[in-house]
Design goal:
Elements lengths: L1 H6 L1 E4 L1 H7 L3 E3 H14 L3 E2 L3 E2 L5 H7 L4 E2 H11 L1 E3 L2
Antiparallel strand pairs: 1-2, 1-6, 3-4, 4-5
Helix pairs in contact: 2-4
């Protein structure tokens, strides 16, 4: 059942949709697309620390301060992902 939760589409905020391209995606796709954006904008340091200040879209989603990659998921879940009903 855990795979169902990861593969079920969820709604994303406008700020996150600016990065991932859609308003509704599975969590796995959201993670994949945000990491693609982080790599494209060179927003990662040492592979673990995300520096959202390098890109306005990342700043809108993650704030301006550096964030550990494990903390990123909790920020996304708390502020930018809403489970579809």
């Amino acid at each position: 059942m855990a795979n169902d939760a990861l593969s079920a589409p969820v709604e994303v905020s406008d700020e996150l949709a600016a990065i991932v391209g859609k308003k509704s995606l599975p969590r796995t796709e959201i993670t994949k697309k945000i990491w693609e954006h982080i790599k494209k904008t060179k927003g990662a340091q040492n592979g673990r620390i995300i520096n959202p200040g390098v890109d306005p879209k990342l700043t809108a989603v993650l704030g301006k301060d550096p964030v550990d990659m494990l903390k990123m998921t909790s920020i996304l879940n708390a502020k930018h992902i809403k489970k579809n009903k």
